[in-house]
Specification:
- By secondary structure, the protein is of the alpha+beta class.
- The chain is built from two helices and eight strands, in the order αββββαββββ.
- β2 (54-59) and β3 (65-72) form a beta hairpin.
- It has an eight-stranded antiparallel β-sheet, covered by helices on one side.
- It has one domain.
- The radius of gyration is 16 Å and the shape is globular.
């Protein structure tokens, strides 16, 4: 597989992913409140009785703040969807750094977006849908034409293309 195995959905139970997170030294940030996933992110959400998600956080090798959230079935603990989210850790950015490094960090986040997209094309084929929303800048790709994992990748920014958040949702 060309992408990091943890980014491509694989049907496993929650214990598998808990081990993955344990090995990556991430921090469990699971909310004490109930969380859910919308149909816009998981089109077949109504097919499952999902438990509240398990969530983890880490700073990745590029310095991005990365959160991963696992949505799993109540009856069998099979993970049905995974949300990966990257952005810049606010606690490590002073106002001065934010002003002078926004373009560089935005470019790095966009480069990560393109790299993930290219790897998903290799693994899942051509996306069936591409959306470019210029008002509130969002660029997104949807892979739903495969019996493999399905994916929805998008990046958020503003009219100046200052990107601040990248999300990848993978599901069966």
């Amino acid at each position: 597989m060309s992408t990091n195995d943890s980014l491509v959905y694989q049907r496993n139970d929650l214990s598998h992913y808990l081990e993955v997170e344990s090995n990556s030294n991430s921090t469990d940030i699971t909310s004490c409140y109930s969380t859910s996933i919308s149909e816009s992110l998981l089109p077949n959400v109504s097919d499952f009785d999902l438990e509240s998600s398990k969530a983890f956080h880490e700073i990745d090798e590029s310095g991005f703040s990365k959160s991963t959230e696992y949505f799993f079935s109540a009856n069998d603990s099979i993970v049905r969807a995974i949300i990966h989210e990257w952005d810049w850790p606010l606690y490590s950015i002073s106002i001065k750094d934010k002003i002078f490094e926004t373009n560089e960090k935005s470019d790095m986040l966009f480069a990560k977006f393109l790299s993930i997209k290219d790897n998903l094309v290799v693994d899942l084929g051509t996306p069936i849908k591409k959306v470019f929303d210029k008002g509130y800048y969002r660029e997104s790709f949807l892979w739903n034409n495969t019996d493999k994992s399905k994916a929805y990748l998008f990046i958020l920014g503003n009219e100046q293309r200052d990107f601040y958040r990248l999300r990848l949702i993978t599901y069966e």
